[in-house]
Amino acid sequence: MNIRRLSPDDAPGYRTLRLRALWELPQAFTSSYEEDEKLPLEASEKRLGSHHNRFWGAFEGDELCGMVGLECETRAKNRHKAKVVGMYVAHEQTGRGMGGALMKALIDDARASRLELLVLTVTEGDSAALRLYQRSGFRSFGIEPRAIKVDGHAYPKNHMYLELPPS
Ligand SMILES: CC(C)(COP(=O)(O)OP(=O)(O)OC[C@H]1O[C@@H](n2cnc3c(N)ncnc32)[C@H](O)[C@@H]1OP(=O)(O)O)[C@@H](O)C(=O)NCCC(=O)NCCS
């Protein structure tokens, strides 16, 4: 397994894996397959190349099998924090430490760039993701009822945070 930052050159693999994630697990993500599959490859290139975003990929050989992203805030009052987005590991690769390794790469980078707070949301009932986030040090600060709706069914989301005190 190899973990590295993704660049715009990784857009084809990133787009394929992201659409797979949105298709397989619609309740796990706020983005939807139906909206994202209409976006061209250039949208993925732009996302991976944006100064405000950072994405990491987990590879087996040349194949992208897992990913996670960090969306940084830009305004003066909140640029000390960033949002963790799009955590996904292809199910045939789960349970081998890929999710943990992706989260470690993200947190190490966040510390190095002096971010002070990471936030994320996880759909209630997604126990594998919840365990991964808790193991990585995230704590819950509230449940948002009816946070997303998928096929007419509403799901609550757990909001979590990780403080990164300056070392
Ligand atoms: C949540 C998710 C990212 C976890 O990915 P993963 O690669 O399986 O994560 P890890 O392997 O690091 O951890 C999973 C389990 O494997 C175990 N594990 C970690 N390293 C291991 C290793 N080297 N050997 C064996 N087991 C290992 C962990 O202890 C963990 O067990 P636990 O869940 O009982 O605590 C993955 O299940 C996923 O993509 N889920 C669907 C999408 C999703 O819900 N995303 C979150 C959106 S908020």
Instruction: State the strand order across the main sheet.
Output: 1-2-3-4-5-7-6
> How do the SSEs run, as a string of H and E?
EHHHEEEHEHEE
Q: Supply the CATH class.
A: Alpha Beta
CATH topology: Aminopeptidase
Your description of this structure?
This protein is of the alpha+beta class. It has one domain (2-163): 3-Layer(aba) Sandwich (Aminopeptidase), CATH 3.40.630.30. It has 5 helices and 7 strands. A 7-stranded mixed β-sheet has the order 1-2-3-4-5-7-6, sandwiched between helices. A hairpin with an 8-residue loop joins β3 (63-72) and β4. The two termini are 29 Å apart.
Blueprint (SSEs and pairs):
Layout: E1 2-5, H1 11-24, H2 33-36, H3 41-49, E2 53-60, E3 63-72, E4 81-89, H4 98-112, E5 117-123, H5 127-135, E6 139-150, E7 153-163
Helix pairs in contact: 1-3
Coenzyme A binds near residues 25 and 122.
Compose a concise summary of this entry.
The protein has 167 residues and is α+β, with helices and mostly antiparallel strands. The chain has helices at residues 11-24, 33-36, 41-49, 98-112, 127-135, and strands at residues 2-5, 53-60, 63-72, 81-89, 117-123, 139-150, 153-163.
State the main characteristics:
7 strands, alpha+beta, 167 residues, Aminopeptidase, seven-stranded mixed β-sheet, binds coenzyme A, 37% strand, single chain
